[in-house]
Specification:
Number of strands: 8
CATH architecture of the largest domain: Sandwich
Shape: elongated
Order of helices and strands: HHEEEEEEHEEHHHHHH
CATH class of the largest domain: Mainly Beta
Strand content: 15-25%
Oligomer: single chain
Low-confidence stretches: none
Protein name: Crp/Fnr family transcriptional regulator
Largest sheet: 4 strands, antiparallel
Helix content: 40-55%
InterPro entries: cNMP-bd_dom (IPR000595), cNMP-bd_dom_sf (IPR018490), RmlC-like_jellyroll (IPR014710)
Amino acid sequence: MKLQFKEIARFFETEYPLNQDGLNELLSSFEVEHFRKGTQILMAKNKEKQLRFLNSGSVREYYATTEKETNINFYTKPQFITDLYSFNNNINTNKNQESLTAIELLVINKKPFYELLKKYECGKSFIDLSFQRLLKHKELLEFNRITKTADELYKELFIYKPNWLEKIPQYHIASYLNITPETLSRIRRRIS
């Protein structure tokens, strides 16, 4: 197996086991794509037509209005980064994604992906479990943003997402916490 497919193979072997033939066929259907820092890889008001797995690099996910951009997630380790709601329901996404570093993605188009899931009878469990995780994450994020202070949210990042604090520019972290970069600097000084 090619080194580029090591992480995605591990993901499917542990999360959504397929028989070896199914896994090999699925992996051979992904294409490797490279993007430079600052590349827009998902734009709001478009439909997700590809399933994307981040192999390396960092990506920010955000909402944008004419007045501002608000970061809602960062991807810094190998994982799927597709807006599954748009992908599965064939509707426009509200999200944007931008590469914060050079990135490598593994990509498969929607139609061949669904054909493979149907062929190996694992599609429903893949989609259902992915949505359950997505909803759980979204619920926790909303709860935290409403009930916790910026100091508490930063402490949680420090404990649960230290790689974000190492890899993501601080002004993006401030946007994620919905505070100014200056406020984030004061919080960091207090906590350090």
